[in-house]
Amino acid sequence: MRAGTEPAGFDPAPARLTVGIVSAGRVGSALGAALERVGHVVFGVAAISDASVQRARTRLPDSEILPVEQVAARSELLLLAVPDAELAGLVRGLAAAGVVRPGTIVAHTSGANGVAVLAPLAALGALPLAIHPAMTFTGHDEDLARLGNACFGVTAADEVGFAIAQALVIEMGGEPVRVQEENRQLYHAALAHGSNHLVTVIVDAVAALRTALSGPGLLGQQVVDDQPNGLAERLLAPLASAALDNALRRGQSALTGPVARGDTDAVVAHLAALEAVDTRLAAGYRALSLRTAERAKTNPALIELLEGRR
User: 279-296 and 184-212 are packed helices; what angle lies between their axes, rounded to 10 degrees?
Assistant: First the structure.
């Protein structure tokens, strides 16, 4: 069909789907709202906890709160947004109940799993998809805004599935990225290492800074306490933000500091200072310093020190 010759009522957008969500956690409710925003109809949500019920009523006010079996039975697109550890059991339960109709698109949001975990439903005629948003969700309004800058790791059983997953992700404003089934664990481990452990590093650094800044401050300066978004966080924020930006844009050349320079004396002094505050914090610093030194191919004596060989 040539452009301009489409019949009246022709809609180039993908068909609107009747969507059911299990469950109304931070991820499921955000993706449901994103799908509704582009015209899909989220008719029902399975929500058990008080927080999930409140989230569903706030983000998806036109959706019914229904038992899981009813959500599954009425869905054209069934979105399983449960924690990784619960996914396999949920899938087995739905398959045993026989409530998912053949032809239903069943997508889960687990990072660690591909489509193999959906095999019991695929055997009944469902179309299995893994659609994982590579971002953290807070349960607040910023989640929807962040979806516009997020990549989604997608895995499917065939090219038809990949095309459907790609279309859904693009509609939600994200960027689809193909992840092979056999690489899902590596994909998930990399994301966890780069995001979860970053939080640990920052929180540890803030704890050390709070100790370093304790005592009388300058006139009019905020008192250092253990509340978030305080003086320690403000001191660290520009440095940490610049380091992250440099690492993403420049790679390993962004490494700076005494470990990258091979300054053994400085690292020894750091370890002693951290040990006096918290031995676990010092152990984390030592482990990350060793990995940094290995990446920088720095002073062999420093590597030996960090390995405990001297």
Answer: 120
pLDDT range class, residue 93, cuts 50, 70, 90: very high
pTM of the model: 0.89
Beta strands in the chain (DSSP E): 18-22, 41-46, 64-65, 77-80, 105-108, 127-133, 151-156, 175-178
State the average pLDDT over residues 218-224.
81
Render 218-275 in DSSP notation, one character per residue: STTPPPP-SSSSSHHHHHHHHHHHHHHHHHHHHGGGG--SHHHHT-HHHHHHHHHHHH
Q: What count of other Cβ atoms lies within 10 Å of the Cβ of residue 27?
A: 23
pLDDT in tens, 144-161: 888 888 999 999 999 999
Tell me the per-residue pLDDT of 51-72, one tens digit each, with 9 for 90 and over: 889 999 999 999 999 999 999 9
Largest CA distance in the chain: 80
Across the beta sheet with 127-133, the strand order is 64-65, 41-46, 18-22, 77-80, 105-108, 127-133, 151-156, 175-178
Strands 151-156 and 127-133: antiparallel
Tell me the backbone φ, ψ of residue 284, rounded to 5 degrees. -65, -40
